[in-house]
Amino acid sequence: MDDLKYGTRNKRGDWAPNKPVETAPLFVFPPKLLAIAKWLPHYFFPWNVIFAASAVAYWALIIPSVETLQTLSVGWALWLYAVNAACVFLFYGAFELHLYVLKRQENRFKYNGKFPADQKNNVFWFDRQNVDNMLRTFLSGVTIWTGIEVVMLWAHANGYAPWLSFSENPWTLALVALVVPVIHEFHFFCIHRLIHTPFLYKWVHSVHHNSVNPSPWSSLSMHPVEHILYLGTAFYHLILPSNPILMLYQLHYAGFGAIPGHVGFDKVEVGEDKLVDSHAYAHYLHHKYFEVNYGDALIPLDKWFGTWHDGSADGEARMQERYRKRKERLSARKASSELQGAAK
């Protein structure tokens, strides 16, 4: 498939889409109903439907009985860890195998023309990005994911978290299910800005940003503190009118949903002529430039706070202008501090 129909490739082999990234039309006033109608299928397919279906499958096939959940036990906690680890290995591994090991679409639609496995870097454990990312995913990521899952299931089973039934509250739960991605986006933006503060960035978030050229295993490669903050999105269901299935959907949206943003390709080729959009470009630009696109464009929070980069020349100019103004402010503070010191 010819990816140059959809974008351009520079001399380094890096690919970029022709069209700038657009934010969702949900929060535009006055509302643009036609634009929302055209966008709405993309809200559900394919990713949100996959994560919602995985939550239903977990509840039907994996989660122990309510009676079992009422008592914390190492046995069922280890069972959930084993299932989570297996599912992460299969889901993340499928993308890694298709795109990075077998390289079935070579570097077509790949933002960064290089592959992480081709380069050694001593910021990673064993100097290998993939080894480092996989170890952090399973040692910390899946462990904390499971820990939060266990606590929330126990809370639901014992009445410490709301448990509404679908038969009695269909519209309330349908609304909560509908806004699960919105909850995730809001939470992600807030904690992401927090961990970009200098102290937390240095000691926590820099671990994730070591993967400047992200790949599937980069998705949950984080410091344990960031894992707690990121996967803690499930805790909203302690106060929302919800139930365990929607809590699992929220958790899966964070855990499995990290893949599209880190897959490193704009589109995944399926068969001879079908393409699946990853919608990863906004977050790829965050990994590339660090201080833009703290959210994922569902809510235009970055536009509202002046940190939006849509991949266009105008977006680049806005980013550089912001950097210039910050440099001027820092220089002015330094000069003021030096003058005060000289006066003493």
TrEMBL record:
GO cellular component: membrane
Protein name: Desaturase
UniProt domain Fatty acid hydroxylase: residue ranges: 178-307
Region feature (Disordered): 317-344
Record keywords: Membrane, Transmembrane, Transmembrane helix
Predominant place of localization: membrane
Top-rank taxon: Bacteria
PANTHER family in the record: STEROL DESATURASE
Compartment(s) where it occurs, according to its Swiss-Prot or TrEMBL record: Membrane
Natural source organism: Rhizobium altiplani
Keyword Membrane among UniProt keywords: yes
One GO BP: lipid biosynthetic process
Membrane spanning residue stretches: 44-66, 78-102, 138-157, 169-191
Gene Ontology molecular function: iron ion binding; oxidoreductase activity
Database matches in Pfam families: FA_hydroxylase
